[in-house]
Structures are given as structure tokens and as C-alpha cells.
What does this fold into?
Amino acid sequence: MSTAVHERLVRPARNIIGSLRLPGCKGISHRYAMLGAFADGTSRFTNFSTGADCASTLVCMADLGAKVNRSGPGSVEVTGVAGRVTPPTHPLDCGNSGSTMRMISGLLAPQTGRFTLVGDTSLSRRPMERIRKPLEAMGARLTLTDGHAPLMIDGGPLRAIDYTTPVPSAQVKSCVLFAGLQTAGITIVREETRTRDHSELALRAFGATLTRTSDSVSITGPQSLHAIDAAVPGDLSSASFFLCAAALFPGSSLVLDSIGLNPTRAGLLDVLTALGAHVAVLNIEEKHAELVGAVQISAPPEGLGSTEVSGALAAQLIDELPVLAAIAPFTSGGIRIRGARELRVKESDRIALVAKNLRAMGAEVAEFDDGLDVPGGQSLHGAQIDSGGDHRIAMAFSVAALRATGDTLIHGADSAAISFPEFFDLLDQVAER
It folds into this structure.
């Protein structure tokens, strides 16, 4: 890959104005791909995520016997295996995608055969012990390498369990539900902090029955799934970069069309509102139990205030925290983040990288084990940014760079393609310079 792709120069902007339609939600695309490939019949998806992570899921499902046909940009047809996968003769390559590895393990554990899951260097460092515990409690046999991938599953019939997740994780919850779908009895997942519910909504869309209480979800197995036709809503995590960019410029006006507004994901809109941004949600409709609508944002003339993100909100906004921290210096009172220790074990140690890069741009920041304090009222200068090969760090600091003095060079900018290949082009489209 050429240096030009590895690095990206981001120049300051004068304003953010315009309207965009964003690629499909990664989280929903992963789940539709897995469940469509597992279901009976042919599912058709439009606005499917263009990111490399969701492509990894499609490749894995094709390797397990599903037929995958990409009929155009964002258009995918998946003919499922009707509940019975074919163990491949080679390892399933999950690429950089923790979602793929953790959730697919739940689908595979009750199946007959041996499955080996591998990933790239970054994925091979991420914790997989968290899915081994519940799956082994169900009777599955998993072999890890020091708690990490490669991951080997010797599949077979499981027993239903009642499991409480020790760390809030939608991926672990999904893994257990996908196993429970195929297991006789009632499998229950309890969580202290409610995590995003894309899997529950997707399972229902494909015809499964689940029961929900305030702190648990249960599924009675075995159940079969049937194919659906669905448009994937625009990705709210991808939208967060544009929403935060617009919040930085008094006089901005940005509209994002057909964005997924799942209540377990939409906490960012509350945080931006708390900071003083003017946020309006228009044309809300429900599609396959997911809420979809347009989001309109403009920045307050007096600039952003201050806020704290902690507890359940920090768990819900885990993917959006890097960009909130990156814009915090431009608020009047700063942003305090706590209860986000999970950021340490993402594609990179995101807390350390956010602190490092803010300091490189001239900001003061205090780093804690589970978060950051970023004081407000600061000005940033252009700098060399170390993305650590992490897409969210590369994109977060591209947003901060819009309000900095001088140009900013993002190293490892190609990592953005993992989740959002169109990111830089769309940013240029709405940035007035």
C-alpha cells in the first residue's frame, strides 16, 4: 500500500455544512449476515456495511456453506444453510473483527464438527476468555491460546444456562443467545448495564421468539430462522464523527439521512444535547424493529459547554468516547470520562492513544485507568497523529484537526477503511475550507 494511503493530511475547516447518507450500521450488518446465512431461504440486504469487518463476516459464513452474492455496492444476497453449517477444512479468518469472532463462536458451538477461528495481529491480542466461560458452562469445548485467538471450537449439543455477564458486552450476550437459539431449554443472559440490543431485534426479525425483562433476555431453543429482505440503517457510530465535527463550528448545519436510532445506541445525541448542540430527529420509522430517522445538528453560537460520561452511559457509548474526548478541548468546561476501562482492550489501548495524540496537538489531558479528564477552553495545533492502526483513533483526530491551527497528518489513516472506507471523502464533502 502506498504511503499516500497510510497517511492523510487533514486541513482546518471553517464550517461543517451539508447533508449525507452514511453506509449501513456495522453491528446490524454483522448480525444480518450471520443470521441470514444461518436461516432458511435467501435474504436480501441493501445499504449493507462497506467496512472490511463485515466483509470478514460474509467470507466466514460463505466458508460455512452459505451462498453470498454481492449484487452491487451495499447490496448483498445470502442464501442460508437452514441451521446446519458445513465445517470448513481451513481456519475461518475473522480479519480485524472481534464482532465476527465472538458472535460466530456462539453460532458454531452447538454445531457438529471442529472449527478454528483466526484473526490479524490486532484481533489476536483481544480478550476471548469472556466468550469461553459462558460457552463452556453450556458444555462447549473451546481451546484458546493464552486467552486469545486462534480459537478452536469442538462443537456439539449444549445445555441451556442462566448467565450473568461480568463485563457489559453486546458481543458476549449475542454469542450466548446465538448458542441458546440452537439449544433445548431456556437460555437466559443477565446484564447489570443494558447493552445494545441489535441481536435481539435481528433474531426477532428472522422469526425467533425472545423474552425481555429490564435486566435480562431469554431465548427458548431450538428455534429455526427464515430469510428476510432488509435495508440496513445508516451507522450511528460512523455518524458520531460528523455530528461531533458539526458541533465544533457555531453556524454549522448538518443533516444525516436514514440513521439507525436504536435507543441502546443513541446516547451520543443526549451527550451532544447536554453539551449545548441543537439536535433534532426527523421522520422516525421502524424497520425490522430498528428505529430509523434523519438527524439534524447545529452548534450553539456560544460554543459547547461541559459534560461527564460515566456508568451505564460510558458502556453504551464505548465506540463514541474517542471522538468525544478529541473534541473536548474545544468545549468551555471540558469532558470527563469514567467507567470506560473497556477502551483499554479495543483495537488499541484507546485511552492511552487519545491522551498521547491530544498532547501532541498541545492539549492538557489527565489519563486514568478507566477514563480521561480533558479540560475545556484549549486550542489545538496541527500535529503528527499516531492512530495505532485503530480506525476510531484515526477518524476521531481527523475531526479534532478541523478546528486546529495548521495541518494535521494522520498516520495509519488506512485503518479507517476497516469500518468506514468512505470516511475521508465524506468529511471533505461537508467541510467548508
User: Anything to note?
Assistant: The chain has two domains: 3-24+234-432, 26-230. The chain has a mean pLDDT of 95. The two ends are 29 Å apart (CA to CA). The domain at 3-24+234-432 is CATH 3.65.10.10 (UDP-n-acetylglucosamine1-carboxyvinyl-transferase; Chain).
